[in-house]
Amino acid sequence: MGKAKVNWNVQTAEEHKLETIVENYKRFLTNQGYRYQTISLYSGRVGKFIEYSRPNEPCTKKADDYRDLLLDQGASKSHVNNTVFALKKYFEMKNIDWSTKILTRNDSLPYYFDENDVLNIFSVCSNIKHLAMLKTLFYGCLRSGELSKLEDNDLDLDKRTIRLRETKGGRDDIALLNDECVETLRIYLNIRPKIEVEGKYPLFFTDNFNLWDRGDIHRMFMGYKKKAGIKKPGAVHVFSRHSPATIMVAKGCDIRIIKELLRHKDIRTTLRYAHVANETKRKMYEEYLVL
């Protein structure tokens, strides 16, 4: 029998006020056509900002201070910028003008896990559901938000494809899978019951019969990364996006094909991922620069 997901705690007045503000903000973003993942991300950032502002009302001065605090704490540029975008929308909802500097992204090479790292992560995972999730992430080059939204009818094992709904940029797409991933999914599906959750039939659901979210997937992955003894920096996005791109480039895959597999709109985004290992540069140099 599944566990009931019930919060028995009584809300304080401040907690109720925060929840009301966040719910109004979510409706505001929904009416503007924002996707579920963006709404979830932005509302979380706004909620933390409001908590930071207590006991005072959130204001643009507090927003400036909060941005500076994030920078002082060493938050990444993307984290700071996403927080700024979320707060801009919050103030727009309140009809308040607020402008601040957007940090420019640097072109430093992204972290990645090599083939041995990926295989080690797979090898320490004895949970067939988690292994199916990890292989679907990696071989499908999926974002964690895309994995969490997969439903049973999105998967076509015969064609070895997965249909992705409302991916980054709001468009639907198709991801490819290889034979190894398909075989693991078959084993998983032979064991897994078909469960309806929130009116959907998710491909993956938690042991409590809830939908997975990005935080759940992050914690699951980091547990196996630690178990595999991998000390390199990087979490799910590094595992499922940076690493497949890097491995494919190292094996000589055309960058234009990688762009399509990663479902990038702009080839410049792919080029940032697709840094090449020094030994691969040497091998290609000696193979092609011959008189």
Description:
The chain has 291 residues and is mainly alpha-helical. The chain folds into 2 domains: 13-93, DNA polymerase, domain 1 (Orthogonal Bundle); 115-287, Orthogonal Bundle (hpI Integrase, Chain A), CATH 1.10.443. It is built from 13 helices and 3 strands. It has helices at residues 13-31, 36-53, 60-72, 77-93, 115-123, 128-140, 144-148, 179-191, 214-227, 236-250, 255-262, 267-273, 278-288; strands at 155-156, 161-164, 173-176. It has a 3-stranded antiparallel sheet, with no helix packed on it. α3 runs antiparallel to α4, α6 (128-140) runs antiparallel to α8 and α6 (128-140) packs across α10. The longest helix is centred in the first third of the chain and has 19 residues, at 13-31. The model has no long low-confidence stretch (mean pLDDT 87).
Quick recap:
This protein has two domains: 81 residues, Orthogonal Bundle (DNA polymerase, domain 1); 173 residues, Intergrase catalytic core (hpI Integrase, Chain A, Orthogonal Bundle). Helix content is 56%, strand content 3%.
